[in-house]
Amino acid sequence: MWLLVVPAYFLGTFPSAVMVARSKGVDITKVGSGNPGASNVSRTLGRAWGIAVFALDALKGIIPAAVGAHLVHNRGLAYAMVAASVLGHMFPATRRFKGGKGVATMAGAMFVLQPLVSAGLSIVWLAVLKISHKASVASIVLIVGLPVLAVVKGVPTWEIVTMIAINALLLLRHADNIKRLLSGTELSTSRPE
Fold first, then answer.
1. C-alpha span between 51 and 39 (Å, rounded)
2. Which structural domain range is residue 108 located in?
3. Of 45, 76, 81, 134, whose CB neighbour count within 10 A is largest?
């Protein structure tokens, strides 16, 4: 049963942004921020393509969370599979361990495992994005807000600790964004004209 974390990792390595951008003749790792994620695709190719990448990356979290929690009925396994998928997305062995930042994958998983918390965070994420015009700011708020709202909702402590551990990795992957935010050079979500 716990061997399911292996296919979960490889599911996470599926290069959604790279493949969507390649279909439009673009190497997403060489344009914009260089990050193979929904925000960079949105800035480079337009919002519709960014949404498509976000949905594909979210599926990489939805599938392992649903398999673990609803098919196998083991929430511990579900979180382990989600962690594996997020790691696969961020550090894909198939692409020299250079992947995305994992926010969409974790968000998809939390919609399965913590639907009420995720619904609340979606509203917060959209509001912060609308105000700041920066996906990185909205993502950082999401990363920090998840365990906070989970505590408020009364989610079991072991789940909150697991969320914090996974989200710590997501936050580390946003270190460059944080530096650019502090220096005032972070890119907005708008597509360049």
1. 9
2. 2-183
3. 81
Asked whether residue 192 is assigned to any structural domain, the reply reads no
Whole-prediction pTM = 0.94
Q: How far is Cα 129 from Cα 51, in angstroms, rounded to an integer?
A: 14
For each of the chain's 193 residues, which pLDDT tens digit applies?
A: 899 999 999 999 999 999 999 999 999 999 998 999 999 999 999 999 999 999 999 999 999 999 999 999 999 999 999 999 999 999 999 999 999 999 999 999 999 999 999 999 999 999 999 999 999 999 999 999 999 999 999 999 999 999 999 999 999 999 999 999 999 998 787 543 2
Domain count, the chain: 1
Helix runs in 91-192, H state only: 103-113, 115-132, 135-153, 157-173, 175-183
Q: Which residues of 133-157 are buried (b: 16+ CB within 10 A; e: fewer)?
A: ebbbbbbbbbbebbbebbeeeebee
